[in-house]
Specification:
24% helix; four-stranded antiparallel β-sheet; 199 residues; 2 helices; 2 domains; alpha+beta; single chain; disordered N terminus; Jelly Rolls
Length: 199
């Protein structure tokens, strides 16, 4: 969470620096308009009019403490029933982030992952349960990066923030159990994720 917060703060500082530069540029253009005579440019446009057009163009650019809006996608999935064999088994909760979960017209717009908030259920009738949260980059479900999390709890991950993100990404929560408990494993509830990102 601290890493995600520091990234947000750094983006704000960058926007603040840019807005300060734009403000100073406006001031310089206005001072130049007051100082220059009505001399002509090559195309017959006066320097004063040229500066007015430039000032209008700069004024259309935003300034102030502007940070890209954080967006969220929340999904809840009940993980699959586990048929437990002698070596154990795995129940899956798959969260596909299709285009339907993103604003219309945003396909192809670069996006940055800010973090994944997660909560997990458990398989109480099975033994030695371990859980992983795995992330697949857009349209690349065959390759996953996984980190261990815990059953029946919640947390936040920023481990995948440096990977590509957007429509077609996938998050999978895997519940692994060992043999020796119930032969069929039923989840006590659902898994949930909240994906935080910015354009």
């Amino acid at each position: 969470m601290n890493r995600a917060l520091s990234e947000r703060e750094s983006y704000c500082r960058i926007d603040d620096d840019l807005s300060f530069m734009l403000f100073n540029l406006r001031v310089m253009v206005m001072e130049a308009m007051n100082a220059l005579p009505d001399s002509k440019l090559m195309l017959g446009i006066s320097m004063r009019r040229y500066l007015i057009v430039l000032l209008i163009g700069i004024s259309l650019l935003p300034y102030g403490a502007v940070c890209a809006e954080e967006k969220v996608i929340s999904k809840t999935v009940t993980p699959s029933v586990i048929n437990v064999i002698s070596i154990g088994g795995t129940g899956l909760a798959v969260f596909d982030l299709s285009h339907a979960y993103f604003p219309a017209g945003s396909f192809g717009v670069p996006k940055q992952l800010l973090g994944i908030d997660w909560s997990t259920t458990s398989y109480p009738e099975n033994i030695k349960e371990s859980v992983e949260l795995c992330y697949s980059q857009p349209y690349n479900g065959a390759q996953q990066t996984c980190v261990p999390i815990w059953p029946g709890t919640s947390g936040t991950l920023t481990n995948f923030n440096d990977q590509r993100f957007g429509q077609g990404a996938r998050i999978t929560i895997k519940h692994h159990v060992l043999g020796g408990g119930a032969r069929v494993g039923y989840p006590a509830g659902s898994d949930a994720v909240t994906v935080r990102y910015r354009d």
